[in-house]
Amino acid sequence: xxxxxxxxxxxxxxxxxxxxxxxxxxxxxxxxxxxxxxxxxxxxxxxxxxxxxxxxxxxxxxxxxxxxxxxxxxxxxxxxxxxxxxxxxxxxxxxxxxxxxxxxxxxxxxxxxxxx
Amino acid sequence: xxxxxxxxxxxxxxxxxxxxxxxxxxxxxxxxxxxxxxxxxxxxxxxxxxxxxxxxxxxxxxxxxxxxxxxxxxxxxxxxxxxxxxxxxxxxxxxxxxxxxxxxxxxxxxxx
Lengths: 116, 112
What we know:
The complex is a heterodimer. In chain A, the strands form 2 sheets. In chain A, strands 2, 4, 5, 6, 9, 10 and 11 form a 7-stranded mixed sheet that branches. Chain A contains no helices and 11 strands. Chain A is mainly beta. Helices cover 0% and strands 48% of the residues of chain A. Chain B is an all-beta fold. Chain B has one domain: Sandwich (Immunoglobulin-like), CATH 2.60.40.10. In chain B, strands 2, 4, 5, 9, 10 and 11 form a 6-stranded mixed sheet that branches. Chain B has a 5-stranded antiparallel sheet with strand order 1-3-8-7-6, with no helix packed on it. Chain B starts with a strand and ends with a strand. The mean pLDDT of chain B is 92. Chains A and B meet through strand 5, strand 9 and strand 10 of A and strand 4, strand 5, strand 9 and strand 10 of B.
């Protein structure tokens, strides 16, 4: 297992374009999370999946953002009509939740988005 | 919203010195975790302390938790240049298996 993989690592796009990020979690993990991180700040929660079900979405996630996790495997995060304020690092993390165990996240290296 | 807040925001020390960073949080928790992030990379889990624990050690790391003050500290002993990174505390918003919320981070610089 090579850990959590994110692609692309860097994306530069013009305002108004759509972008899609992909995350491949650790295969046996049942939870997958998306976070956004801007310079000098901690990661901010966007959304998470348990298997293929999207269980929670942050209010930060506007209608232009959509995430999917078909078949409970990889996930995609799409941003439509990008704005300069969308420029950030998009982090994916996965975890294996068993019963009432603690939720320890394994992060990918992130996808950095720059909107011109 | 961010549950935790680290202090100081930035810390610069020399190699061999100890580094202490603090985290305060707002609501009751079942556990608290610390993560490290090297520049431009993802976060790496360092250590987890449960609410019924007061202190925990892992190698050169020592974590304390004071639930009455809603605070935690991370001590890195005998720091090395490779410890240069940002350090974040993370807490579940509700329950043990809830999503984690992260603090604002402490940026540690270890110089030779």
